Structure formats: C-alpha cells, structure tokens
Amino acid sequence: MREIQKGANVSLTALSEDAGSVVVSLSWTSASGAGDADVSVLLLDGSGKVRDENDFYFYNHPAADDGSVQLLGKTPTENGDEDRIGLDLTAVPPGVERIVVAASQYGGACFGDLDDLRMTVADRSGDPLVGFSIEDAGVERAFIFGELYRRGEEWKFRAVGQGYETGLAGLATDFGIAVLEEGEEAAGEPAGEIPKTLGGGESAPDAESGSAGAAVAVSVTAADPEEQAEPEPAPAAPVAAPAVPAQSRGRGPRTTRKKVTLPKVPGKSLAENESWRPARLFPVPSLKSDKEREVRATSVLLAVMAQVPELGRRLTAGFGAPAGRMQTFTEVSLPHGESPRRPDGVIRVERAGKLWTALVETKTNGNPLRTEQVQEYVDIAARRGYEAVITLSNDVALEGVPMVEVKVDGRRKHKVTLWHLSWAEVAHQAQLLIRHEGVGNAAHAWLLQELLEYLQHENSGCHGFQNMGPAWVPVRKGIEDETLGGGDPRAVEVVESWERLIRQVCLRLGGELGQKALPVQRARRGSDPRERRAAAGEALCADGRLTAELRIDGTSRVIAVTADLRTARLRTSVEIPAPAGSYPLSTVKRLLRLLAEAPADLHVESLVEGANGPRGTLERLRPEPADLLPRDGAQLTGFRLTLVKGMGNTRGNAESGFIRSVDEAVERFYHGVVAHLGAVEGQRSGGRRG
After folding, report:
1. Are the C-beta atoms of 585 and 660 separated by less than 8 Å?
2. Exposure string (b/e) for 585-624, b if CB count within 10 Å is 16 or more?
3. Residues 6 or more apart from 341 whose CB is under 8 A from it?
4. Cα 587 to chain center, whole Å?
5. Residue 116 near residue 79, CB atoms below 8 Å
6. Are strands 354-362 and 388-393 parallel, antiparallel or unpaired?
7. How much is the pLDDT for 679?
8. Cβ burial, residue 361 (10 Å; 0-12/13-18/19+)
9. DSSP for 128-141?
10. Could you give the CA distance from residue 62 to residue 240 in angstroms, rounded to a whole number?
11. How does DSSP assign 571-585, residue by residue?
12. How buried is residue 456: exposed, middle or buried, by Cβ count under 10 Å (0-12/13-18/19+)?
C-alpha cells in the first residue's frame, strides 16, 4: 500500500488493475471509547457543485440507485471504528467529475478529540491501494478526508485533509448545499412550517418526547447546464432538497424514496388457538441432519438475495461485488482433478457485460469450516477466474484471527479473496431492512420476514455463535479451583470466544434498535491484536474476569460488561457525568426520576473526584435520594449504574448457557436503563447537524 501526504495524488489505475470498484475506509480511535463521526459523500460536477439533492449521501440517504455509492456503515476494528464506503466507479454518471469523502462531528465535539484519523482506498479484492493519515486535526467539526476525481479515462485519488470549524454546514455550503439552521425558512417552504423530510412527508412530532423534532433544512442551488460554461453564471432558484431530521437516529434512517417496513407488533391472529401455526414459506421442522440444514439454509438465503436487491447488495458490496443483476445457484458441479467439487452455492453479478463470481461454502449448527475444503474452492476460483470465496457459518470473524488458513499461489495473476459471513450478520442485515430502513416493496419485506423467521427457528441451525469452545470448561474450573496458571494458552482461546460473543451481542442489539452497536477497542492503532489478547488472557488468569465495552452508534454512552467467573456474576454498567453547575441533591432527584421505570435492583453509585461515593439499590434510594450525596462536601462528578445477575454455567447457548445469559443481561440493561437515559440525552442535545 502506498502512503501519501496531504495534497498529494495518485492514479488508482496505476496501483491496481481492478480499481473499477473500490472500498473507501475512514477510521479513528478515541481514548474514551465514545468518540464518533458521521461519514458523507458528495458527487460534484465540473463546476465543483452537486447537481441536485441526490448527489449528497449521508446516514439518511445511504445509497445511490445506480449502485455507484453505498455507505456500508461502521465496523469494529482492533483499534477503534472504521466507516466503509463502496464506490463503483464504472457506474458513476458521466456528469460527475469528483467524489468528495468527508466526515462530521455533532454537538460540541471536534476532530481533535479523536486520534489516528485515517483514510484508505482498497480495490475490489480488498487489497489496500493507498493510505492517508491526518495528523493536524484540532477544533474542526467537519473534515474532507480525500477525493476521487476523473482524469480522462482514469480515476485518481487526492489526499485533502481540509477541516471546517463550522461543521457540516460550512462544508456543505462550499459545494452548493445551503444548510438552514432551525428556525430559518427552507427554500420552497413557507415561513413557520417544518421543512420536508427525506421521505417526502413532513416532520412529525417525536413519539417519545412529545414535541416536534427540530430539523436542519438542506437546499441545493443548481445552475442551468448552458449557463455553467459562462464565467459568471447567474444564480438559479434553489431547489427544495432533503432535510436532516435531528432525531431521526432514534427512529431509524430514512431514504429518498418511500420504503416498506413491517410493524414490530403483528396484526391480530385469526387462529382459533395457539396450536395453529402460521404457514411458512421456508419450513424447518422436518430438517433432520446437518447436511439437510446446510443445503436448505444455502438455498433459502441465496434465493432471497437474488430476489431482494437491497439484501443481496448489502451482503456482497463489502466483498467487492458491483451493483448489477444478481443470480444465485446451488450445488454447482465444478471440475477439480479426477472428481468434480460441488460448492454449496455460487453468486454471480453482471454489470456492463462483466461478471463477478463468488463460490459459497456454508456450515450450520456450529459445525466448523474445513480448511482443505475451502482451499479447494480457492484453487478452483483462481483457475476459473472467479473473484471470491465466501464462507458462511455460525462463527463470528475477528481481526487478526483467520477463519481458515489457505494458501494463495503467488504465481497466478488472478487474485481470489476469501471473505466470511456469520449467520448473525445475515439476520442483523435482514432485520435492519425490514424493521428500520425499508425495502422497495411489500413482497420484498415479506420475503425478508420469512427469511428471518427461518434463521431464528430453533431447528434451522443458523443461530450464530453459540459455543464458547473446548477451553471454556477447563478454564472456568481452573479459575474456580485457583489452579489456572499465567500463560495458559487456553485463556487466550476463551478471550477470543468472548470477543466473538460480544460482537454477536452487538449485532443482535443493533438489529433491534436500527443502529450500529459496536465493541469499544481502546488499543492504539498499529498494536498487535495477538499481544492484546495475550494480555487479556493473563488478566483472566489473575483476576478471573472477562471485560468488554460496547457503544450504540450516535450516542456517547459506553456500556461495560463484566463476567466474573469466580463469583458467577454478570455485571452491566454505564457511567453518567453530573451536569456542571447543578446542585447535587437536584441532580440526584433528576436522575431518580429518569429511572422511574428501571429495575428496582439497579445499583446506583455516586462518583467523586478520585474515589467512589455512596451507593445503594434503586429500591432503597427512591424514598431517600439524599443518601446518594457525597460525604464531607466532596464534589459529585457523576454516577455509575449497574445491574448484576447470575451467569450461565454451560458453554453453549442452552437455557442455562453462558452465551444466553450475556445476551439477556445486555438486553435487560439497555432497555431497562440505558434507553431512558438515551431518550433524555437526545431531547437535551436537540439538532445534531448543521
């Protein structure tokens, strides 16, 4: 990968023969774990302005209809978060000369609060081509990381690194987008009315807060094409464009077209009694063997991917697939030596007469992927000129830990990339589409619902990560008996399983909420993940605890999860800073009012400078809030809220299993505690953008 400095440029064609489709990644780290930014993409014409409102892509408008731009969302890395964007350069309209990639902070945050700001561009196969690090960020609230631009028949990349103290509003204004603050008149909107939203309707009162959500209106100034050639084109009338609703995060993203979602609560059943089961498109009770489960699961998933473009594109864009016509196949016979091989599935995407092909190998019911089998498929793909091999199983991938070790023949000119999907990720994406983001029509929504019902059925074998592995029982017993010594490699295996579990918990929670939930990594960029896991293994041997942190995208709350193997207790907690300048007793009373619906066994602890203050259960503190005040006049800095529950004993996902107990603990804590705090945080912060 080539490293370039601010202001430098490089030809993507010169770096790769497969740069027609690229994946742009923006990444950063945060010492607190709460730092975040929102990515946006602008398509500019020859005048350096957007052509219309559809050339501005952000969290509420994440994809282009022609597949040229798709915001793929955040993904956790070993050192923080990474926001990825898929760009199909072959599909970019001829009138677009530049693609600007930017990010913005909200509230009072600035990019100086984040570390290791970086942009990388990878080709279709996932190989990094060029990287650029920003080292001079300060008070800026928005940043242009870089841009891709045309030069004749090729695309080039320029490292920009330009910041805006005025945030998204200042950045957008430079490219022909007028951002009007709350209270100003939006172009084309009568005074006093709320501007149109991206969905085409008007901003409705927020269901939770009971007040109308503030909006930031966005309008695009477009000039007549013939006038753009003149040195000083006359300004044209502004065209009404999308508004960025301040509280849309809590209600799920919207897009430029009306989308179909399914209600969370189904309509009243017409069945006479509970023994009547609804007819399902994909029945599962008859499945008896692992082979049957694998064949059925592969066929069901690939068929829905081909019929529901939103899901097919969502699951393949990050693997370098172009946006185009997709067809899927199962049990395809491919020559290999004396006997043919039959991968579980094949995905083919056609665009502009070119084919992208991936072989699919599927495992269900916790069965592991076999290295020799995957190696054969990689060899077959290389010989036949296919682009990728995709493995699909219950396991969750981790950075720095390959799912299977395969060898790539360096003498072959054609490169084959190996990718992995977990069934939990498939279910997560399906739930995001049908519950929050929407799909093109009602039939597609129904197909996704049937797919989700299938994946969640106890007999499908597609339940995601559900076994802590063979090291779990001996490590836990060694901790209980105090016989587990430092440096035991089994402790590192347990740490890896714990990380997989936390990532799956994030997928499930994020799918339910319609927002990304991400594990928080506090390691510095460039640190070795093996060393970090080895250190966590040593800590597990020493104190018998597994720890993790996770954060809901768009919030500053960091949820800490601790599994104490010595006491068999799970602790979920969150820390809340005390408002500056408020009276301590008023602050305590306000907190208890916010927690009116929280579980009575919630532990509330005062935090003071350099120490922990008084604590008690919510049940005891409600009639006596003054018991939470720090003694001796110490300054109150915040609170720690904690729920404690028993921990499952077995390593699997059974009713008494450890995995299920962690899932339930995080879900109960979020809905019983954090959700109430988040709603209030959103109400206080008001409009986040502009």
Report:
1. no
2. eebbeebbeebeebeeebbbbbbbeeeebebbebeebeee
3. 333, 334, 376, 377, 380
4. 34
5. yes
6. parallel
7. 46
8. buried
9. EEEEEEE----S-S
10. 19
11. EEEEEEEPPTT--HH
12. middle
Residue 648 to residue 654: CA distance in whole angstroms: 9
User: What ranges in 469-624 are assigned the alpha helix state H?
Assistant: 472-481, 489-513, 529-543, 584-594, 618-621
651, with CB counted inside 10 A (0-12, 13-18, 19+), is buried
Q: What is the pLDDT of residue 33?
A: 66
- List the one residue out of 66, 166, 30 whose CA is nearest residue 520: 30
Measured in whole angstroms, the distance separating CA 44 from the mean position of its chain's CA atoms is: 27
Q: CA 431, CA 449: separation in Å to the nearest integer? A: 8
Is the Cβ–Cβ distance between 547 and 569 less than 8 Å?
A: no
Query: Cα–Cα distance between 641 and 573 in angstroms, integer?
Result: 5
Half-sphere exposure of 279 (CA within 13 A, CB side): 2
d(C-alpha 449, C-alpha 282), whole Å: 11
Query: What's residue 285's pLDDT?
Result: 72
310, exposed or middle or buried, with CB in 10 Å at 0-12, 13-18, 19+? buried
β-strand partners of 518: 551
Question: Is residue 111 a contact partner of residue 138, using CB atoms and an 8 Å limit?
Answer: yes
Residue 229 has what pLDDT?
35
Task: Name residue 149's amino acid.
Answer: Y
Strand order in 354-362's β-sheet?
325-330, 345-351, 354-362, 388-393, 417-422
Q: Give residue 312's pLDDT.
A: 94
Identity of the amino acid at 307: Q
CA-CA distance, 129 to 112, in Å (whole number)?
Answer: 27
Residue 354 to residues 89, 357, 387, Cα–Cα distance (Å): 14, 10, 12
Q: Are 437 and 249 in contact (CB under 8 A)?
A: no
Residue among 523, 561, 565, 560 at smallest CA distance from 543: 565
Residue that has been written with the tokens 């499952």 in this structure: 648
> How does pLDDT run across 604-644, given as a tens digit for each residue?
999 988 677 899 999 999 999 999 888 877 888 899 999 99
Each residue of 400-446: pLDDT tens digit?
Answer: 778 888 887 666 667 888 999 999 999 999 999 998 888 888 999 99
Please give the structure tokens belonging to residue 383: 């010989």
Please report the DSSP string for 381-417 in residue order: HHHHT--EEEEEES---BTTB-SS-----TT-SS--E
Phi first, then psi: give them for residue 342, nearest 5 degrees.
-125, 90
Residues 563 and 546: beta-carbon distance below 8 Å: yes
pLDDT for the residue numbered 10? 93
Q: Which residue has the tokens 């395969």?
A: 406
- Residue 504: name the closest of 423, 393, 399 by CA: 423
Comparing C-alpha atoms, which of 610, 557, 616, 613 is closest to residue 584? 613
- Stated length of the chain: 690
> 205: helix, coil or strand?
strand
CA pair distance 540, 494, nearest whole angstrom: 9
**pTM of the entire predicted model:** 0.76
Residues contacting 541, CB < 8 A, separation 6+? 479, 484, 485, 486, 487, 488, 491
Residues of the chain with pLDDT under 50: 181-257, 679-690
pLDDT at residue number 523: 67
Which of 358, 351, 356 lies closest to 323, judged by CA?
Answer: 351
3-state secondary structure of 117: strand
- What number of other Cβ atoms are within 10 A of residue 534's Cβ? 16
Q: Which two tokens stand for residue 53?
A: 């409102």
Locate 347 and state its tokens.
């995905």
Q: What is the pLDDT of residue 101?
A: 95
Q: Give the residues across from 212 on adjacent strands.
A: 205
Phi first, then psi, for residue 238 (nearest 5°) are -65, 145
**């008896």: which residue's tokens?**
288
Distance CA 386, CA 537 (A): 40
Q: Which residue has the tokens 């000083």?
A: 232
